[in-house]
Write a structure and sequence with these properties.
The strands form two sheets. The chain has a five-stranded mixed β-sheet, covered by helices on one side. A two-stranded parallel sheet has the order 1-2. It has eleven helices and seven strands. It is α/β, with parallel strands linked by helices. The chain has three domains: about 170 residues, no CATH class; about 70 residues; about 130 residues, 2-Layer Sandwich (Heat Shock Protein 90), CATH 3.30.565. Its EC number is 2.7.13.3. GO terms for molecular function: kinase activity. It is an enzyme of class 2 (transferase).
């Protein structure tokens, strides 16, 4: 992708190449051309064309040294070189003694240097500029051709054809570099959009799942507030009004939640709605999940702490622990078929948190990938669920092979969880 139109004016050729020697290569190549062509030009003009030494030296410098500028500013270098070449043709015509029998108006050294310049132009400039350069080269040769003396080898057509071919080839290479750069940029944008869409989809999924949990608590509040006057007789009127206001606010909140859930589902039909209304799973169903995975051909060991049965696990933590194990086991089946896995869910009363650990070894055998019940979002969904509860997630490959997922889910999550989006892995 280093062969592409430069991002800004004055940027050297191959400036975006990954290695230093590649970035210095254009300067070295043009330096070799200048060092080689300068003495040869002076010698040929002096001995073959019979031009004076002073004029030959000045003309040689004017025709070759600007090639160094072609690496970073090829259009300016082309203007200087073409002007020097035209001036050289005129000086040969009026001041040299041995022009008949030799190439004119473009000497062999002029042709070689000009083609090197065309390479720099073709690799750097857009097609419109290359067409103008080709037409200007042909026009200068045609004008000089009207004054060609007898007996010379006319090189107008030679330079025009060769320079056009070089511009076409190098321009195509630069266009290929531009196309690859645009494809890479588009791929990067698409990947970022896919990651962002996956993150948003997973957040919407989590919100839909937690709807039942929150709606249950709001319904309890409504029932308690409505029934308070009957359960607590002798209540003052202001207290009755206060409970009525609480019940009304709870009902209004439930309505708002249902409208939000409709938006998150993205449709007004009933497709998939029955699944959303089903009771959400929790830690108590992890054993069933492990048994289903074992029946699918994946060896899994499960360890659930007995203290979890009496632990005050909030519904969000309960659901998140199940989903993390579900997604981790689905990833084991997809990416490490046949590998042994170990699931451990423990309760730390001292720290007030649930610890979820899923570890698998490297793949050994090829099995049918039957486990497809995960969200399909991998670590993106795990991170979002852990962040929802204010916990931490440690996931990554093991040195001896395999993968490890460890999540800490506090039973008393903080009031506010950092809402900044995480980069998906």
């Amino acid at each position: 992708m280093a062969l592409r139109t430069p991002a800004r004016a004055g940027e050297p050729l191959l400036a975006r190449a990954p290695r230093a020697w590649q970035r210095m290569l254009p300067f070295a190549v043009m330096g070799v051309f200048v060092v080689s062509l300068l003495p040869v030009t002076i010698a040929v003009l002096t001995h073959d064309y019979g031009m004076g030494g002073g004029w030959a030296g000045a003309l040689g410098v004017a025709q070759t040294v600007p090639l160094l500028l072609a690496v970073s500013r090829p259009v300016a270098a082309w203007g200087l070189v073409l002007s020097a070449d035209v001036l050289g043709a005129v000086l040969l015509l009026v001041g040299a003694d041995q022009v008949p029998g030799h190439a004119w108006p473009w000497t062999p050294m002029v042709v070689v240097g000009y083609l090197a310049l065309m390479v720099c132009l073709g690799l750097r400039e857009p097609v419109r500029t290359l067409i103008r350069v080709g037409l200007a080269t042909g026009a200068a040769g045609v004008v000089l051709g009207f004054f060609a003396p007898d007996g010379v080898t006319n090189t107008v057509a030679l330079l025009f054809v060769l320079s056009g071919c070089v511009l076409a080839v190098t321009g195509a290479l630069r266009g290929l570099g531009d196309a690859r750069q645009r494809a890479a940029e588009q791929e990067s944008i698409s990947e970022a959009e896919r990651a962002r869409r996956t993150l948003l989809e997973e957040r919407a999924r989590i919100a839909r799942e937690l709807h039942d949990v929150v709606a249950h608590h709001m319904s309890v509040i409504t029932v308690q507030a409505d029934s308070a006057p009957y359960r607590l007789p002798g209540m003052d009127e202001p207290v009755r009004e206060e409970f009525a206001a609480i019940a009304a606010s709870a009902r209004e909140s439930l309505g708002e939640m249902r409208r939000l859930l409709t938006v998150l589902r993205g449709d007004s039909g009933s497709g998939g709605a029955e699944g959303d209304r089903a009771p959400q799973p929790g830690i108590g169903r992890i054993q069933q999940l492990v048994e289903a995975t074992v029946r699918a051909g994946q060896p899994v060991e499960c360890s659930l702490a007995a203290a979890l049965a009496d632990a005050p696990v909030p519904p969000a933590v309960d659901l998140s622990a199940y989903r993390i194990v579900q997604e981790a086991l689905a990833n084991v089946v997809r990416h490490a078929p046949g590998a042994s896995a170990r699931v451990s869910v423990t309760y730390s009363a001292q720290d007030g948190e649930v610890l979820v650990l899923v570890v698998n070894g490297p793949a050994r055998d090829a099995v049918v990938e039957l486990e497809r019940s995960g969200t399909g979002h991998g670590l993106v969904g795990m991170r979002e669920r852990v962040r929802l509860t204010g916990g931490t997630l440690d996931a990554g490959p093991l040195p001896e092979g395999g993968f490890r997922v460890a999540a800490r889910l506090p039973l008393d999550p903080p009031d506010s969880v950092d809402s900044r989006s995480e980069e998906p892995s």
